[in-house]
Amino acid sequence: MSSPPVGYLAAPDQPWNVQHYLDGKVGYVLGLLWQHLWLSVLPVVIGLIIALPIGYAAKRFKWTYTPLVTISGLLYTIPSLALFVVIPSVIGTQILDPINVVIPLTIYTIALMVRVIADGLRSVDETVLQAASAMGYSRFQRLLKVELPIAIPVIGAGLRVAVVANVGMVAVAAVIGVPQLGTLFSYGKDLFYYAPIVVGLVLSVALAFALDLLIVLAVRALTPWRKAVAAR
Amino acid sequence: MINDLWSYISVADHWWGPNGIMARLDEHLRYSAIAVGISLVLAIPLGLVVGHTGRGTAVVTFIANAFRALPAVGLLIFLVVLISPQFTGRSEARYLIPTTIVLVLLSIPSILANTVEGVRNVDPEARDAARGMGMTGSQVLFKVELPCALPLIFSGVRSAVLQVIATATIAAYISLGGLGRLIIDGLSSREYPKVITGAVAVAVLAIVLDVLIALIQRYTVSRGVSGRFSRKGATATTAPRKDDAIEADAEVLAV
User: Fold this and answer.
1) What 8-state DSSP symbol labels residue A126?
2) CA end-to-end span of chain A, whole Å?
3) What CATH code is carried by the domain that includes residue B139?
4) Are A171 and B202 within 8 A, CB to CB?
5) Residue B248 has pLDDT above 70, yes or no
6) What ranges make up the beta strands (E) of B10-124?
7) Interchain proximity A175–B248, CB inside 8 Å
8) pLDDT mean over B12-19
9) What's the domain range around B80?
10) Chain B positions in Cβ-Cβ contact with residue A161 (cut-off 8 Å)
């Protein structure tokens, strides 16, 4: 009996059996989930930190609004796979470096959030700003204690879109080989093995919903006055 | 990076051969056009009806949100693995059919949600005025609600097209053609210039299509809705552009 050639992977007997697949691999799958989690969350955090001052600038200096929003809109049109493979040659990282995933997703987050933050800050009522100034708030204090808190629901809505989109885009990195839940897709594809694909799909949808819910709860916790108004 | 790009695209064979950039572009556009065409035919009429009658709005929102969370690659690979063994022989259909299904599934939610949202957002006074003038339900829909909803519908179509172009790139990963072929083949044979060319080509295609649709939008949306008047008509330019604020919420998803 001849042995299969090197690199040949036999199709599984029970391609649908998730339990069978997970047997002894729970740790491995959780590791991928953890990778997926930080690859999707880190860019949102960095992106938000970078987008805040840019969004503020777009609101503060009116003439910068259109160019900043147009440029960020253009960045958003570039497909993620294109950015994933170009980044290494631009900054000189290895093709498998997770940084190649973090940087493009950060760019997308910035592209999305600049507009959201600018619009959120612009939506703050002028009379509220005047009241704050009349109470002796400096421009910076006013931004921190009045404008940003009022803009939180809008910024939160933007973050929800960003984080859910990121969870989906991280999976694309499986094509270039950075390990995360998308790895389960490529594994299942090569073997015609449904179980890992189903596990990957379920976990990444669950991750997206969990992160989405987290932001909803955070927005609720940070804006207690909205609940008071609603209860009235 | 520029050098890599130039070293690849300065060779004529890389452009015109059976596996050249133009052939890949042709495939990419074909896959995308089929999918977007199907989505438009399905989603816009459905969205207009749902928006006009107000029935099923909650269902549409739920479906749109649920699909946003689905990773396109995962869905694509899942359907390919599921469907392609049903086809025998070496036909392209075994990969094209699952890919088209995925692209349609991904592009329907943004078109559908924006169409519904666009019709729902029409100023109730405009709708009432149209009724008061004696318009029938379908006249209100086609003469008032549809024109007013066009900016949002277009923004939905634009994000759908971007997503389809991006996901069609991944189709190369499941052995279909398209510009993604350059990226995937280049990666596996370590021809970096080829990878860069594929990436730049996809990005340029996405931007060009977005600009093209924006141009169509500019000439099809009534000026009364978009607020684009010449500077001389000072009264109208000062009116706030309502669709600006709404467009910001419209979901834009790149893959």
Assistant:
1) H
2) 80
3) 1.10.3720.10
4) no
5) no
6) none
7) no
8) 78
9) 2-249
10) 68, 251-253
